[in-house]
TrEMBL record:
One of its GO terms (molecular function) is DNA-binding transcription factor activity. This is DNA-binding transcriptional LysR family regulator. Residues 311-330 are annotated as: Disordered. It comes from the Bacteria. The lineage of its organism: Bacteria, Bacillati, Bacillota, Clostridia, Lachnospirales.
Amino acid sequence: MELRTLHYFLTVAAEQNITHAARKLNISQPPLSRQLSQLEEELGVTLFIRGKRRIQLTEEGKYLAQQAQHILDMAQHTAQQLAQMKSQEVKGVLLLGITETCSAGVLPGILPQFSRLYPHVSYNIWCGSSTDVSQRVEQGLLDIGIVREPISMENLEFSRISQEAWIAVAPKGHPLAAKGKAEVDIRFSEVIHSKPETPPATLDQICQYPLFIPSRQPLQNEVHNWLSTNGGSYQIIGMYNQISSIIPLVAGNMGIAIAPPSIKKYTDDRKLDYIDIASPSLVTDIYMICARRKLLSAGARAFWDFTAPSDKQSRPLNHPGYSPESYPDQ
């Protein structure tokens, strides 16, 4: 498969009409039809359902369209990075993956400063769950990811950049609000705990109310284990993969959300109370990751070096002189 052929295929898929696609590609229709037929013959599958007025993708065609877009994006990104390496200037596009809460808690403390140091680096930011981000990093679709544990690090380089003690998010005026007020540090969302005269709410107190918890399975398991610490009962009224989806329900007094403190940065404190939790607290780490043994572009490497604290848990990046024996598998 040639990149040009994949480009032709995607154009036809988008236009749903060969004549329109040929006009857009500035080629005649017969050569375009031949290219598509040759592609189907090469792959041994039917890619299109051909109608009188428009054509549609088969299931095989839909799959190829998805993969073809990834291939073309990666080819373009590779060409850009090679040009950058030749010029020896830190520039280009950084493909960055991040979770919703990490985006609010981490990026504001990093990107503005990094951008001032490296003004010729631009950003393509993709948001998803920690599992989705790590998978795209492993597949080479993202240069760097910022994710929340628990996450498998087997095929990843990593650096711990933050730690968060989770909080309870309740409707404004909730009875537990007097127990503790959560505050968030500007950089990396480090938690500043409540003043002594306003102690955090206990886990037993939190468990008296219906709860919203994360749906991502590894994190969900960790939250369940934490909620069960004191042996008491609790009620899960709902789960979320994006915390913003259940905030209106919390504000409507349907339940309390267990969430990272960075949520305070992009929710309305006029409708919500943010409550520290103790006895015991739930603490998770935030990691920066990249594919193991991958040569990063100059921009991605600069971002890694800028962001990774040297005094926190990490597995070192590949660099000249790197040896697989320099650290064990984890």
